[in-house]
Amino acid sequence: QQQVKQSPQSLIVQKGGISIINCAYENTAFDYFPWYQQFPGKGPALLIAIRPDVSEKKEGRFTISFNKSAKQFSLHIMDSQPGDSATYFCAATYNQGGKLIFGQGTELSVKP
Amino acid sequence: GAGVSQSPSNKVTEKGKDVELRCDPISGHTALYWYRQSLGQGLEFLIYFQGNSAPDKSGLPSDRFSAERTGGSVSTLTIQRTQQEDSAVYLCASSPALGGRTTQYFGPGTRLLVL
Predict the structure, then answer these.
(1) Do A44 and B91 touch (CB under 8 A)?
(2) Are A34 and A91 in contact (CB under 8 A)?
(3) How far apart are alpha carbons B109 and A46 in whole angstroms?
(4) What is the pLDDT of residues A14-47, one digit of tens each?
(5) What are φ and ψ of residue A103, in 5° steps?
(6) Which residues of A73-103 are buried (b: 16+ CB within 10 A; e: fewer)?
């Protein structure tokens, strides 16, 4: 059972463009939604996260939009740069325990 | 400061052999997590530790998989009688406390190939 569904699988964006990655979840018990960025040969690293009582969170060029009623959330990368080329994972977790349930990942390529 | 380290970085083994994968968490981090990353299954949770105890082992795929943590620090993931489907990158993460809203810091992973 795929508890967190992520799309698209891959994304190509021109430098300066907006990258948008979408996720949907099923379990309403999830109460924290982080995004992780992973470069080849490295472990994932936390990029930005949101709680379900907030509809939007922005950190620099990265914004999470959260729609609790639709059980969907998305990552927007503004002014995308070649250095943003990486694999992005959305995740969901419960405050108790904290195991991360990941989406399938999106491989982002930003062309110069 | 030092991040999470894992060893070996790469491991090639023959089907049926046992392997041990090691994780050294960030000093002082009480929570430790193991995940597996494979092409077909993505990133999957395996087990987590709070101190030396493992409250949640629900992600371990079979009884061939086990893990322990000693001294509230180093953890070892053991896979017995390895199978080809065990080939994956095994990732360890640690966090200062248990809980979903606490950042997990990942190591670089151990890439396991079972021939």
Answers:
(1) yes
(2) yes
(3) 16
(4) 999 999 999 999 999 999 999 999 999 999 999 9
(5) -75, 175
(6) bbbbbeebeeebbbbbbbbbbbeebbbbbbb
Tokens representing B7 are: 């060893």
- Alpha carbon A62 to its chain's center: 10
* Chain A interface, Cβ < 8 Å to B: 31-32, 41-46, 49, 51, 89, 93-105
CA atoms A35, A2, B67, A99: torsion sign: positive
Cα–Cα distance list, A5 to A2, A31, A108, B15, B102 (Å): 6, 16, 17, 33, 23
pLDDT tens per residue across span B91-114? 999 999 888 788 999 999 999 999
